[in-house]
Amino acid sequence: TSRLLSRYHDTNDNADVNLELVRILVSQAEKHRHGTDAQTTTMVKQVGRLARVMAFPPDQERDLVYGCLLRDIGLMDKTADFPQGDRNWNQEQREIWRSHPDEGAGLLAKLGLPATIIDVVRSHHERYDGRGFPRGLDGHNVPLVARVVAIAESYSQMVTGSDGQTPLSPVAAAELLRRDAGSRFDPDLVELFLKAVLPGGTRLVRPEMAMPVPETVG
After folding, report:
1. Which is higher by pLDDT, 14 or 62?
2. Closest CA to 69 of 111, 39, 109
3. Residues 104 and 93 sit within 8 Å (Cβ to Cβ)
4. Phi, psi (deg, nearest 5) at residue 89
5. In the chain, helix, strand, coil percent, each to 5?
6. Which of 73, 130, 138, 209 sees the fewest Cβ atoms within 10 Å?
7. Is residue 214 included in any domain, yes or no?
8. Which pTM was predicted?
C-alpha cells in the first residue's frame, strides 16, 4: 500500500493532498476493510487503467486511487465484524454497513480531503438503477468516480475470490459485469472497463454465456 500511495502521489509535483495524512488513514482503514490485500491491489490497478483510458488528469486519477484505498474508512472503530464470506449479519452489522459510506465521507470532508476521494467513499455502494445506498442515487446522479470504483470493486472481488467465493477467470467475471450492466453498473463504463482490463477487450465476452452467481455485498 505504501508503494501505491507514493506512486500516485508522485504523479503530481504540486499535489495538494497530505500524503502522510492519507497514509495514516489508509493504515486505519486496512484494519477494517471488507476485502483482501490482493483484491485492493487488483482494484487499484484496474481503476488506474480505466482512468487513463478516460483521460482523467493525473490529480484526479491519484484521488480516485486514494478513494479506493479509503473506501471503507467509515468502518473504523466499529464494534461489529464482517467475516469474509459470511453475510448472515445481525441488525447492528446491517446498520453499520449501510451507514459506513456517509460516516467515512463525513470524516474525510472534515479533514479537507478532495471531492473526488469523498465522492468515492460516499457513493461506491450506489447502483445505476437507484437501489444502492446510502442515498439511492441512480444513473448519472451517481458521481462518475463512484461508478468507476463500483465496477472495479466487483470485478476484483470476483477474480480474487476475496468475498468468500471461488475465484473466477477474468472472462467469467467480465461476463457477469456485462450481465449487471444497466442495473448495478453504468453500461457504458462496463464496456470501457472491459476494453481496459481484458487483453482481448470485449471480444472475449459473450453475454449468452453469463452464469448466475450470488451478488457481492453492496
Report:
1. 62
2. 39
3. no
4. -80, 150
5. 60, 0, 40
6. 209
7. no
8. 0.82
